[in-house]
Structure formats: structure tokens, C-alpha cells
Amino acid sequence: MRRTLAGLLFGLAYACATLAISGFLLQRTAFNPDNSSAAAGVILGDNAIRAQLVSAIIDNSSTPVIPDDVANRPLEIERLRRLIAKVAQHPDGQPYFAQIVHDAHSRLIGDHPGPVEITGEELVSITRTQRAATTTTFVLSVPEVTALAITNHVTDWLVPILAIAAVVLLLAGLSTHPEKESMLKTLAVGMVVLALTSLIMGYLVPKFAIPALSKSVWAHIPARLADEQLPLVIGMMVVLILGAFLAVAGSGMMRRQRRWSQPISTYRYSEERRWS
Questions:
Q1: Please, which residues bridge with residue 118 across strands?
Q2: Strand 116-118 relative to strand 138-140, pairing
Q3: Which of 34, 44, 140, 244 minimizes the number of CB atoms within 10 Å of its CB?
Q4: What is the pLDDT of residue 264?
Q5: Helix (H) or strand (E) holding 116
Q6: Which helix (H) or strand (E) holds 124?
Q7: What digits encode the pLDDT tens for the residues 96-142?
Q8: Residue 274 pLDDT more than 70?
Q9: Which positions ≥6 away from 211 have C-beta within 8 Å?
Q10: Residue 244 above 90 pLDDT?
Q11: How far is CA 90 from each of CA 50, 65, 84, 204, rounded to the nearest angstrom?
């Protein structure tokens, strides 16, 4: 009975831990605009995102920056386009796009209440000319993805609850299980499951599944952040797999110790004698 109860507690603990780790890793990639802002260079490394952002800036700021009466205006506009793209790719220029990337990501996951706006003041540093300050504030086309918005709001309050529940259930299972050797094996299996969950939810889902939810290029942000957070995911997997290995090794040591501590069984042989 105690073993069945402990198994149930371990199962619930692993379920809660799996969901908590999944939510935590998704918060690091899909639902954290601060991370995308800090890693603006990583986001702008996506060719589609950078091209759309540069085109939006050119379409709305080319007239204030390059008046209609300028000679060879198409050539000057093309030079401005290359300049903005160069600023977006340069480490010193990427921080100028940080707030735009932050607002775009927030809009994507439902945290930004209104449209993503770009002001003329923001364009001064990007275009390298004060004339850009006269640009009328314009809206960057970034959709809100309903599935991401719902998941984002749910994980905000659900992850802490699941993490606490996982710890409580795990401690209850440890105190209830009657066989320590079997308990360690169960822990090892759970750690391997959590390691696989870390890979799936920390990398594969934001890298491939989330971009498929929307045709907007801004849905590529989680994929870019997944590449950035890959060392964290790998580190978690290594720790969990190492923990599983230690649990299996501990189980084997306990089994050998139990064998050596048991008394050796002896058998008495009696010789049956026949008298003739």
C-alpha cells in the first residue's frame, strides 16, 4: 500500500515538475520581452525580421530624411536603406533597436496594449541624421498571436504553483516510499524524463512550433531566443542526466550493501545411513 501511494505521489510530482520546467523555459524564450530587448542583436540576426524593419523605416522616413527635390533620390534612398541595415547589424547600433524589438515581442504575446509605434526621435540614431526627428510616428505591423497570449498569461501564475506542488509531492513520496533502492530508480527515470522535457520545451517548441503559429516574421523571435538559450537548456540536461546516473549508482550500491549485510544461509546435510 505504501509503495503504491509513493508511486502515485512521484507520478504527480513529475507531472507538476514537467509542466513547471516547461513553463519556465518558455518564459525564457517565448514570453520574456526583456530577454529579446537585451538580445536585440540576436533578434536582428534574423534576415526576415531585419528586412521588414528596415523596409518599414524606409517607407515612413524617406521623405523627411530625403526630400523629393533631392537629385538622384532613388539612389539616396537605397543608400539610406543600406545604412539602416548596417546599423542593425553592427553591435554598437543594435541597442538603438532594443525598444522596438521589446515592444514587438510584447505585442506578439499580448503584453503590449496597443500597436507598436516608432517615433521620429528613435530614428535619429538609427538613420544618423537629425532630419529623421520630423518623421511622423508610425505603426509597425506586428500581430498578436492568441495562442501565445493565452499561454503567456497562464504560465505567469501557474509555474510558481506547479513548482511548489512538485517539491511538496516529491518530499511526500520520498518519506512514504518503503524501499529506498526502488525509490532511487524511480528518481532516475524521472530525471531522464525532465531532461527530455527540457530539450523539447526549451528548444524544439520555441524553435520550430511557435513560428508555425503565425505567418508574421516577428514570430521568429522565440526561435532566435531559443538559439540564445540553448546553453542553458544543455546545462539543465547535463545536470539532470548526471543526477539520474548518480541515483542509479546509489541504487546499485544499496543493493550490494544489502547483500553483504545479510547473513549467509547454511544448510545442514544429513547422511542417511542404511543398516543391512
A1: 138
A2: antiparallel
A3: 34
A4: 53
A5: strand 116-118
A6: helix 120-127
A7: 999 999 999 999 999 988 999 999 999 999 999 999 999 999 999 99
A8: no
A9: 219, 220, 222, 223
A10: yes
A11: 12, 21, 10, 29
- Give every CB contact of residue 133 below 8 A, 6+ residues apart in sequence: 120, 121, 123, 124
Locate cell 528613435: which residue? 122
pTM across the whole model:
0.87
**Is-contact 216 142, C-beta < 8 A?**
yes
Q: Which of 163-177, 218-232, 260-274 has the lowest mean pLDDT?
A: 260-274
Q: Are 191 and 247 in contact (CB under 8 A)?
A: yes
Domain ranges of the chain: 2-30+156-258, 33-140
State the Rg of the chain over Cα: 30
- Are the CB atoms for 129 and 65 separated by under 8 Å? yes
77: exposed, middle or buried (Cβ count in 10 Å: 0-12, 13-18, 19+): middle
